[in-house]
């Protein structure tokens, strides 16, 4: 390195190459707008991959962080702290849960959930009841355990041997699950909407059938709500919009609104299997993270914000349908609330990243969910005018991309 310039090129010199970030470097954000080093403005409908649930630099969140920063940063789990206790109380009052474990990410929350499921089965049924069933195309994190439970082989390749006792059923296919579940199954793990797998919602009857099978075989039902939680679908958690209640729920991403925090929620009966010393996290329950997350929950749980999710989704759907009417580019538009997936027609399968780049060039930031699905997970409070502008820019990107210009 010959100079002190901070640019995208510096990434290639100093960072491990497991990411390939976009060529722009954002330096400032406000609401659903971002600005890069050159001052160029972008409309952000990525939401930091469903994280910036209230946009960038929301005043209630920045105030919570600044206020807590002047009081207490870190204690470790040798002590508890007021922000953690207040947040846990809110989560238990607003959900099925009676007990909360705090950590730093969705992967850590899932790691805790999977360990708890095995420990609970061991405590109540013996060591033979240890098998976990997940679903193909699911995603649950990048630790060795969570990537093994996840149903995408590409993320496990090169890291074998992986933990045993894990099988994968076909999503939305109850017969597939029936063929795998047994008295040895300790847990069935599912996303209410498969996010990284292509934004695929679980059918209500499928969810109901999974719950019934778990009850029949004394297996815990674990809902991975890392991406669907904290208002994303118009309910505080997506399970509230299904016919079932899970035994364990994991949450992260939007929980901190951009500040790293994760949590595992469960009942008193199940939580007893995580006795003293059985699991832990040095940073889990950090006062800064919990103070911000507490403010997130207060803001997101306001009825007017949650009720507005459906209206904003309708605007996205209408705009995407109009784009599709012009270019016949989407095979299907799916998802729920403000987790939106637009699957490309077969001609463009494998090339979703090209549309992401084209959109960026027009000043709108979108995501992909695999190589054939464009994904949007904007802030729940994204202004209607920003939705309209984002769709106009996406339209312009489609026109240029498809015309070859």
Automatic annotation (TrEMBL):
Gene Ontology cellular component annotations, sorted alphabetically: cytoplasm
Co-factor binding details: Binds 1 pyridoxal phosphate per subunit.
EC number(s) per entry: 2.6.1.11
Gene3D superfamilies from the UniProt entry: Aspartate Aminotransferase, domain 1, Type I PLP-dependent aspartate aminotransferase-like (Major domain)
GO molecular function: identical protein binding; N2-acetyl-L-ornithine:2-oxoglutarate 5-aminotransferase activity; pyridoxal phosphate binding
Binding site for pyridoxal 5'-phosphate: 106-107, 139, 224-227, 282
Keyword Cytoplasm set for record: yes
NCBIfam families in the cross-refs: arg_catab_astC, argD, PRK01278.1, PRK05093.1, PRK12381.1
Name the record gives this protein: Acetylornithine aminotransferase
């Amino acid at each position: 390195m010959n100079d002190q310039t901070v640019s995208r090129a510096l990434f290639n010199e100093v960072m491990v190459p497991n990411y390939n970030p976009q060529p722009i470097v954002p330096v400032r954000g406000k609401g659903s707008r971002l600005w890069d080093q050159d001052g160029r403005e972008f409309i952000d409908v990525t939401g930091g991959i469903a994280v910036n649930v209230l946009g960038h630099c929301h005043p209630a969140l920045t105030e919570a962080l600044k206020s807590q920063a002047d009081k207490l940063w870190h204690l470790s789990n040798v002590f508890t702290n007021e922000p953690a206790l207040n947040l846990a109380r809110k989560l238990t009052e607003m959900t099925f849960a009676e007990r909360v474990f705090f950590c730093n990410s969705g992967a850590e929350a899932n790691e805790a959930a999977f360990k708890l499921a095995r420990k609970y089965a061991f405590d109540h049924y013996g060591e033979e009841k240890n098998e976990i069933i997940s679903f193909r195309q699911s995603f649950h994190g990048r630790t060795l355990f969570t990537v093994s439970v996840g149903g995408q082989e590409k993320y496990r390749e090169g890291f074998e041997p992986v933990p045993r006792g894990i099988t994968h059923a076909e999503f939305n296919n109850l017969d597939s699950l029936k063929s795998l579940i047994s008295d040895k199954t300790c847990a069935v793990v599912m996303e209410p909407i498969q996010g990284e797998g292509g934004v695929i919602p679980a059918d209500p009857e499928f969810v109901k059938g999974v719950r019934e099978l778990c009850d029949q075989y004394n297996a815990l039902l674990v809902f991975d709500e890392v991406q669907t939680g904290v208002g994303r679908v118009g309910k505080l958690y997506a399970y509230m919009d299904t016919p079932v209640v899970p035994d364990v729920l994991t949450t992260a991403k939007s929980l901190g609104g951009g500040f790293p925090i994760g949590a595992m929620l469960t009942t008193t009966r199940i939580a007893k299997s995580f006795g003293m010393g059985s699991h832990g996290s040095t940073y889990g329950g950090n006062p800064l993270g919990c103070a911000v997350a507490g403010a997130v929950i207060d803001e997101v749980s306001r009825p007017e914000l949650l009720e507005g999710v459906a209206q904003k989704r309708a605007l996205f759907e209408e705009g995407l349908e109009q784009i599709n009417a012009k270019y016949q580019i989407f095979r299907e538009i799916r998802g729920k609330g403000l987790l939106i997936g637009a699957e490309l027609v077969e001609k463009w399968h494998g090339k979703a990243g090209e549309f992401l780049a084209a959109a960026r060039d027009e000043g709108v930031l979108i995501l992909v969910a695999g190589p054939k699905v464009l994904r949007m997970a904007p802030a729940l409070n994204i202004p209607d005018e920003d939705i309209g502008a984002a769709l106009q820019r996406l339209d312009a990107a489609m026109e240029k991309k498809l015309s070859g210009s």
